[in-house]
Design goal:
Structural class: mainly alpha
Oligomer: single chain
Number of strands: 4
Order of helices and strands: HEEHEHHHEH
CATH topology of the largest domain: Recoverin, domain 1
CATH superfamily of the largest domain: EF-hand
Low-confidence stretches: none
């Protein structure tokens, strides 16, 4: 019984110490545990600035998904990278029916959807 109590206490201490050593992550990521979030010091972006941030994040995710650095994503690459928006709208984005879409194709689709 004493051993089990000591083990539980040690696990609690180690978990607390690990939480203190964990890097702080941006508040904007919802899957980050509350204890690891850093408070935002900036005012939230709005309007054109918000659109630019969203587009930059989409471009970054697009480029990370492009494993072969071809400059285009197949539907399978988009799906594997978690780019569900590109995957679900692939036919509408790939107007040339090339089987792959560039970031410019995605931007053109977004402009058409407005």
């Amino acid at each position: 019984m004493k051993h089990a109590l000591l083990i539980a206490l040690a696990a609690t201490v180690l978990a607390a110490q690990a939480a203190e050593d964990a890097p702080l992550l941006p508040r904007s990521e919802p899957y980050v545990p509350k204890a690891q979030r850093i408070p935002s010091r900036d005012t939230p972006a709005t309007g054109a600035e918000l659109k630019a941030q969203a587009l930059a994040k989409l471009r970054q995710r697009f480029e990370e998904a492009d494993r072969d650095r071809s400059g285009a994503l197949t539907r399978q690459e988009a799906a594997m990278a978690g780019l569900g928006y590109v995957d679900k709208n692939f036919e509408e984005i790939d107007l040339a029916r090339k089987g792959a879409v560039t970031f410019a194709d995605v931007q053109a689709y977004l402009r058409r959807r407005k």
